[in-house]
Amino acid sequence: MTKKHLLILWICFCHFANAQQKDFVIPDSLSTKGYEYFSKNILYKERDSVKEKGYAKSWLAKAKLEKNYGQMALAYKALLYKSNKKSQLIYADSIVAAAKKTADIELIGSAYMTKGIIYYDRREQMNALDNYLIADEYLSKTNNQYLIYKLKYAIGLTKFYLGFYDEAIALFKECVNYFKQENNRAYLNSLHSLGLCYNCIGKYELSSQTNQLGLSAGKRYKNLEMQSYFIESEGVNQYFKHNYSDAIKKLTAALPQVRHNKDFANETVANFYIGKSYWSQNLEEKALPYLKKVDDAFQKQNYIRPDLREAYELLIGYYQQRNDKQKELYYVSTLLKVDKLIHKDYKYLSGKIYKEYNTKKLLQTQRDNEQFWTVVAFIIITIMTIIIAFFISRHYRNKRLFATLMNREPDTVKSLAIENGNKEMELDISPEVVTVILKNLEKFEYKKKYLDKDMTLGKMASILNTNPKYVSKIIARYRSKGSIEYVSDLKIDHIVALLKNESKYRNYTNKALGEEAGFGSTQKFTRAFNNRTGLSPTYFITALKNQ
Question: What's the domain of life for this entry (predicted)?
């Protein structure tokens, strides 16, 4: 059949549907009823209900007569849920057309979301996403949290389809928290989708916990519509936990209700994982019929998703081993079609969702946080001002310290003459011994023995021909320092003198200078230099070079 013939049939169908609606006369029993009456008496639970469909048609006829486009959109929505799948897309277009004639952005956004949901149910993911994105443009400007979260759930399903599981989890968690208090069925749906995502990222225990939570919540709410789906989800989860028998048991138990719901997508998933469970137990003959049902769904419904394509690989390998060229060729050619479809959908969907939805959300976040970032910017500027002031202050301080250091002479050895006779008495050391130690200390300084690596008090006492106790007391009394500080300062004074007087040392690294002074590590040297001079070796050398 050509495209021209299809177009003619479509126009005829629309004309027929409109003609039927125009010919519809509101029954006398409903002619005086208001919009609220129709809204309350349509429960949206059983499709093709003759009574409720009559309410919906009466609702629409009344709205058309009164040219109330908002009520027309709601009536079309009621008819959509009371009609078969072939008519639903027509009614979805009518909902959008009626809503757009109002100035109600909430109604328009809701209309586009409804149309997106219809496309999603038809497995037309690209068209679904296009309508979700338009819906988001409208709903993001409203305060209707229920519709906003309903759209978040729909976007989450698209992210799940694309394989962006972590992002989908974030959205589904938000939906779980919101719908728990708002809508039992939406809460169960969100839990189910969250469990599937956990499975896909390998968090099997979390998936099991979420599925169990869904089963318990369904019983508590006395809403068992999702029970088979949680059981199916747990069956898939058990497959990945390598509990193949339990997986088969749960998936087989879920299948009858899934088939009853005419949910070919979840039926296909269940068949695939039953087949995979048998295959993993080397029961290939049992697995074969279930794997072939994946192909049946593709041929009849054009339904496939990336994880299901493995069924074709297994079937190709099976018939290849049995040298059945005809069937091998069939599944190879079909797999090529599958890959083409997956590539087409994923390339489009991932591009749309990131370029439009994610970018829009980022821009919205940017707008929402402008004030926050203004405060942050002020704080950063203040901190930077303080830091700059600190560095300027340190610069001038370093300049003063450098000038002082350039004019300072190293500590000189005090004369051996005893200025105060009581000093020796206070030390509890005889004057003769003090004199000998001081003379040896002079030699120690003159011969630069302090440059020996890791000079200790014991080593110094040995060089001075005395004991560590006496050395410590003499240095404290005549050099006004502890023995470690005394040796460290001598080393640094030596390096400062070298840097002042011999330019070649200014090209040394801190490590080399530390070794020259006899320090055990570069860190000890730089710390000692800073303690003695108030400057870093690098700054002092740079200042010398600039001089």
Answer: Bacteria
Give the torsion sign (CA, 390, 392, 394, 396).
negative
Pairwise CA distance, residues 402 & 144, whole Å: 69
The amino acid present at 284, given as its one-letter code, is E
Residue 401 CA, chain-centre distance (Å), reads: 51
Give the pLDDT mean for 321-344. Answer: 85
Give the residue with greater pLDDT, 63 vs 19: 63
3-state secondary structure 123-150: CCHHHHHHHHHHHHHHHCCCCCHHHHHH
First-residue to last-residue Cα distance in the chain: 93
Q: What DSSP designation does 507 have?
A: G
d(CA 150, CA 128): 14
Report d(CA 98, CA 70) in Å as an integer.
7
Which stretch of DSSP H or E encloses residue 308? none
**Contact in structure between 364 and 140 (CB atoms under 8 Å):** yes
Helix (H) / strand (E) containing 303: none
Domains observed in the chain: 226-356 (1.25.40.10), 405-546 (1.10.10.60)
The interaxial angle of helices 184-200 and 165-182, nearest 10 deg, is 160
Report DSSP letters for 168-189, one per residue. HHHHHHHHHHHHHHH-HHHHHH
Give CA–CA dist 80/92, Å, rounded: 7
Write the CB contacts of 348 (distance below 8 Å, at least 6 apart in sequence): 126
What is the arithmetic mean of pLDDT over 124-146? Answer: 88
Decide if 500 contacts 493 (C-beta within 8 A).
no
Nearest one of 487, 538, 539 to 517, comparing CA atoms: 487
Of the candidates 203, 262, 269, the residue with the CA atom closest to the CA atom of residue 231: 269
Which residue is associated with the tokens 């069939």?
A: 330
Q: What is the CA radius of gyration of the chain?
A: 43
Q: Which amino acid belongs to residue 65?
A: L
Q: pLDDT higher for 50 or 524?
A: 524
Token readout for 60 is: 């629409």
